[in-house]
Amino acid sequence: MYRNKKIALVVVAYNEQRLIIPTLSKVPALFDRVFVVDDGSKDATPQLVTDRQQQDTRIQLIQHPSNKGVGAALITGYYAERAERCDITVVIGGDDQMPLEQVERLLNPIVDGAADYVKGNRFLEETNAIESMPRIRLVGNTIISLLTKIASGYYRIFDVVDGYTAISLAAIEKINWAQAWTGYGYPMDFLVRMNAYGLRVLDVPRRAIYLPGERQSQIKGWKYLLRVSPMLFRDFLWRLKFRYVYRDFHPLVFLYFGGALSFLIGLGIGIWIVSSKITGMIPSAATSILCALFVTIGIQSIFFAMLFEMLEERTGHG
User: Fold this and answer.
1) Contact at 8 Å (CB) between 302 and 256?
2) What DSSP string describes 137-177?
3) Pick from 146, 69, 152, 68: which is nearest to 117 by CA?
4) DSSP tag of 58
């Protein structure tokens, strides 16, 4: 128990025979239940967890018969937590790279009623987190975080790929997890869904842990970015439809879609102007003005829509 709340820990593991025991040995006493979700490991991870259960009766092993993806394993843990009626669920990986001694930072905002979902942000903890991160990963993290801000509507979050999180039982019960993304990129998809359901998300500083010789991140530069960008675009469109049309109408939908349409029309006119000049035609000045007008209105409309969402976030409405 922590501050009269029942706390669960979900440990997602796939082929973590080297680090699963160090991870489980550091679980603080404040956790009431520990769900280790083995996502179809091929090594000795399940057996090591079973052996550890003899020393720590809080541990329960849940096994996927085959590898379903990190997001799917995490959702399995959420379902197990929901069945146990734990008030808050903390999620970590089985790779011993998340500082459980700092877990109260994630728990307190939820217990105090200030947030529904809290995630770690390694860049808030120490400035050398930026200096120690390889440049390609830093650039990839930054671009993905910026895209996720737009897709999710949470403009005050960063380090979106960080998997050290805590979520309330009420938030778990509110979201339809059957529609969630289950593979790489799941943290960004989860954020989009949380905004669609009007949940409050908060970043808290957490210490970065880098173990020598161990994999450090799912981000593999531009390849990872290309994989998740289409998902973020689809999620963005779904969120606007679900939150601002189905659940509660908001005029920013017109600003987003009207702005995009205006920009595309202006872009199309601009392409026609360029192609006309190439073929020897001379477009009128009015055509050039019309192009600039459509592009300007489009960009301004999109920026105004983003501003509306930023203001909503600051006032605590999502």
Assistant:
1) yes
2) HHHHHHHHHHHHHHHHS-TT---TT---EEEEHHHHHHS-G
3) 152
4) T
Largest Cα span, the chain: 82
Token pair for residue 238? 């779904």
> So what's the pLDDT on residue 127?
55
> What separation in angstroms does the CA of 137 have from each of 127, 132, 215, 224?
16, 10, 13, 10
- Using alpha carbons, list the distances in angstroms from residue 111 to 5, 184, 318: 8, 29, 18
Query: CA 131, CA 310: separation in Å to the nearest integer?
Result: 29
Could you give the CA distance from residue 297 to residue 266 in angstroms, rounded to a whole number? Answer: 9
- 191-213 per-position pLDDT tens digit: 999 999 999 999 999 988 877 65
In the chain, domain spans: 7-231, 250-314
Strand partners for 102: none
- What number of other Cβ atoms are within 10 A of residue 211's Cβ? 13
pTM, two decimal places: 0.89
Q: Which fold has domain 7-231?
A: Spore Coat Polysaccharide Biosynthesis Protein SpsA; Chain A (3.90.550)
**39-67 pLDDT, tens digit each:** 999 999 999 999 999 999 999 999 999 99
Taking the CA atoms of the chain, what radius of gyration do you get in angstroms? Answer: 23
Q: Please, what sign has the CA dihedral across residues 40, 42, 47, 52?
A: negative
Residue 295 CB contacts under 8 Å (≥ 6 apart), including other chains = 262, 263, 266, 267, 270
Tokens at residue 214, please?
């161990």
